């Protein structure tokens, strides 16, 4: 049975339209602005609410089904899990319905002694011999990883050696998989750039990315998931300044590097910090605006831009043929980004879940 939202204003990726009709059937958007001819159609007048494509959080961590439901409660219908284990639990989450869907890094590559070595990961997360990297990449992809994650630290801080980073990129690219590097230190960004990773996540809080480094990242085609939400949380640690991360963010923006909104939200037993899922993607958009983004650019960082860069052409934009993953909010977020928090309804594959 077809379902139609009428009296709905649509975010097109450029503007908010006048009230129109959005039609859905079989989990996809079938038409926009067309007359309803199906006599059995279900029609909902949403009273002028604004429909956004379901939001995409490009950096978080999943643990249980409830996490995926919580994300959907906040209109986040696609997630990118930046490390979780064991693979059996992560893969069981892939079979859940009526909640957010996700891509996952699975088990990351980490160094022998960095802060991430304390997180109880499987032993094979740590690789110190570059010769063992190709088998490690193959194992992860066989276990379901959608891309490869490596946790880089400042030189001398116990992270993977630069040769490991180089080998991870070569092995992953050989298999057609992208590489995301955790880079919360300036030296880690240099290691990531040298290795040729596709995406850097977090920003240095010790020394900012300057215009010269940003230009080299742009030349290399590197993407950024800055996780300003996490940078705010980490700024309580002595020597780590939010202002440094914000300065790096402005340099990346000036260099034209695509930025994907991500939060590093996590609700896993025994982690040092608990960062609320769903809620914080709205906070991340506000932090981007605070850093100089327009509300439009912030919204694109959680819709079109990640859909394009994660290879998800069926989402990120409301158009016929796209998944009917929709966030209905009360009023125009282009005038005030905090309005994305005013969730009036959420659809996943055309089914109302909120
Ligand atoms: Zn993370």
Automatic annotation (TrEMBL):
SUPFAM superfamilies: Composite domain of metallo-dependent hydrolases, Metallo-dependent hydrolases. Residues 51-353 form the Amidohydrolase-related domain. GO terms for molecular function: hydrolase activity, acting on carbon-nitrogen (but not peptide) bonds. This is Amidohydrolase-related domain-containing protein. Pfam families: Amidohydro_1. InterPro entries: Amidohydro-rel, Metal-dep_hydrolase_composite, Metal_Hydrolase, Metallo-dep_Hydrolase. Signal peptide: none annotated. It comes from Corynebacterium frankenforstense DSM 45800. It comes from the Bacteria.
């Amino acid at each position: 049975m077809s379902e139609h939202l009428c009296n709905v204003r649509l975010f097109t990726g450029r503007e908010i339209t006048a009230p129109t009709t959005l039609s859905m059937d079989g989990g996809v958007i079938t038409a926009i602005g067309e007359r309803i001819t199906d006599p059995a159609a279900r029609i909902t007048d949403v009273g002028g609410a604004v429909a956004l494509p379901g939001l995409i959080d490009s950096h978080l961590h999943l643990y249980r089904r409830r996490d995926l439901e919580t994300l959907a409660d906040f209109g986040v219908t696609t997630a990118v899990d930046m490390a979780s284990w064991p693979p059996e639990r992560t893969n069981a989450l892939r079979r859940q319905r009526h909640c957010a869907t996700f891509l996952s890094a699975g088990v990351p590559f980490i160094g022998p002694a960095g802060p991430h070595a304390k997180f109880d990961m499987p032993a094979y997360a740590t690789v110190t011999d570059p010769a063992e990297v190709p088998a490690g990449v193959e194992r992860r992809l066989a276990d379901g990883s959608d891309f490869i994650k490596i946790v880089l630290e400042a030189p001398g801080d116990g992270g993977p050696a630069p040769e490991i980073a180089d080998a991870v990129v070569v092995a992953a690219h050989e298999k057609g998989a992208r590489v995301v590097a955790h880079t919360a230190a300036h030296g880690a960004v240099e290691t990531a750039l040298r290795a040729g990773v596709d995406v850097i996540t977090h920003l240095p809080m010790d020394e900012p990315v300057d215009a010269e480094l940003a230009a080299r990242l742009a030349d290399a085609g590197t993407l950024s998931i800055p996780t300003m939400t996490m940078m705010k949380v980490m700024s309580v640690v002595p020597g780590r300044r939010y202002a440094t991360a914000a300065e790096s963010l402005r340099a990346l923006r000036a260099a034209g590097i695509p930025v994907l909104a991500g939060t590093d939200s996590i609700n896993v037993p025994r982690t040092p910090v608990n960062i609320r899922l769903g809620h914080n993607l709205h906070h991340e958009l506000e932090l981007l605006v605070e850093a100089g983004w327009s509300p439009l650019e912030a919204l694109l960082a959680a819709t079109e831009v990640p859909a394009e860069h994660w290879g998800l052409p069926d989402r990120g934009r409301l158009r016929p043929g796209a998944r009917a993953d929709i966030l209905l909010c009360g009023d125009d977020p282009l005038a005030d980004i905090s309005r994305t928090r005013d969730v009036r309804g959420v659809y996943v594959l055309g089914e109302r879940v909120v």
